[in-house]
Amino acid sequence: ISQGTLQATTSAIPGSSTEGVSISSGANLVLSYGASNSGVYSGPISGGGNITINDLSGATIALSNSNNSYSGATNLVGGVLAISAPGDLGTQAGGVNLSGGTLQFTAPMTIPVTQPEATISLLSGTSQIDTDGNNVTLGENVAGSAGNLNKIGAGTLTLTGLVPTTTIGTLGVLQGVLSLASASSYGFSCGTINGT
After folding, report:
1. The pTM is what?
2. Could you read off the pLDDT of 131-150 as tens digits, one per residue?
3. Following CA atoms 20, 51, 121, 123 in sequence, which dihedral angle do they give, to the nearest 10 degrees?
């Protein structure tokens, strides 16, 4: 994709260990499934462009190639984006931008501070992080000036760093455990914290 936007379902573009897609800087790949079941894209994704997951049906879209090397942002607008390894999110300087939908971790993992894909920005609406029974550590930041965040799924989500200027409307712990490694040092503000 050299410019503009390619909007496709996960089954409409080729994907295998040797067959993938390259997104040039400034271009966008918009993935949706358009049905109530799940889609998997296993091909390698490269280039400097962005990926947007926008599936208003609520279906799950899995990126399942740990050798993805795209460096643009991953924008989650609707549906569920499932990953099983940090490399599924590429090497992106843009991190993960949440404007709704659910980011699901289907395996235990730690994403260290040196990996920019650990940066999660809350842009608008209510988004969810689903640990799906796993223990997940994000070693960089949760940032943003708007948006709500719910932690769902069994397992523990550990946040070891938050941007001091971060403002979260509502932080909800609906299932499992949310661990803030050093809450007193974060300096972020949150309108409401809900727990079950």
Report:
1. 0.85
2. 999 999 887 667 776 788 89
3. -160
